[in-house]
Amino acid sequence: MLARRGAKVVLHERPETFSLLKSLAGVENFIPNDAEPPATDWRVHLWDIMHALGVGPNDVGESAPYLSADAEHASRWRQRLGERSSPRIGVCWRGRTTNAVERMRSLHRTALERLLSHDAEFVSLQFEAGEDAVLLAAHGVADFGRDIADFAELAALIEVLDLVVTIDTGVAHLAGALGKPVWIMLPYAADWRWMKARADSPWYPSARLFRQTKPGDWNSVVDAVAAQLPK
């Protein structure tokens, strides 16, 4: 939207995201966030742009996909995964442990096991499985955490999946930005970006939202997701 209004956009961002964000239209240049930005007429945080432009949820339109995965990397993941026997579903159940809302938004172990017990070909989208590695192995979940170097590589893996099932973390936003079907499991007090009492999202037309009906109840959310998983 900024570029269409004539702006020359410089994105001040983490260097590890540059290889992914290069597919983002409208950006003239990327500057590492630890470097001094060039002289500009205006400087604005990404989350303030809609307000600055006077854009609301009903004005977004078909906002996604606005990112794309590297085709060569996606092809390598497709070959590595091989022939599929059933729909291939990426799953993410935990975010950064440093996040203040981590305990509230992440699946507990019982809910994760409940999800993985359903008949599907699951692929872990966690950068690190950690203490859940044994559980993944027991359920035959493909785990490539050590091979996912950054979000660009993660995007390439997501590109070859049929569906992403995730909690509210970066994976949800990445899948939505790629236009990949993504089912997002939300806590009772969800982040404001998911609004209230909605099962869809104006930001990501490919997203479906599954909400807790009472605080901490992940089992009912997982059961609702599992009941609608593609066969």
3D architecture notes:
This protein is of the alpha/beta class. It folds into two domains: 9-55, no CATH class; 71-227, Glycogen Phosphorylase B (Rossmann fold, 3-Layer(aba) Sandwich), CATH 3.40.50.2000. 29% of the residues lie in helices and 16% in strands. A six-stranded parallel sheet has the order 5-4-3-6-7-8. A two-stranded parallel ribbon has the order 1-2. α5 runs parallel beside α9 (218-227) and α7 (151-159) crosses α8. The longest helix is centred in the first third of the chain and has 11 residues, at 71-81. The radius of gyration is 18 Å and the shape is globular. The termini are far apart.
Report the portion of residues in β strands. 15-25%
- What is the second-level CATH architecture of the largest domain? 3-Layer(aba) Sandwich
Mean pLDDT: 91
CATH class bucket of the largest domain: Alpha Beta
Report the count of strand segments.
Answer: 8
Under CATH, the homologous superfamily of the largest domain reads: Glycogen Phosphorylase B
For the terminal residues, how far apart are their CA atoms?
39 Å
Give me the CATH fold name of the largest domain: Rossmann fold
Keywords:
six-stranded parallel sheet, globular, single chain, Rossmann fold, 2 domains, 9 helices, alpha/beta, two-stranded parallel sheet, 231 residues
A few lines on this structure:
By secondary structure, this protein is an alpha/beta fold. Helices cover 29% and strands 16% of the residues.
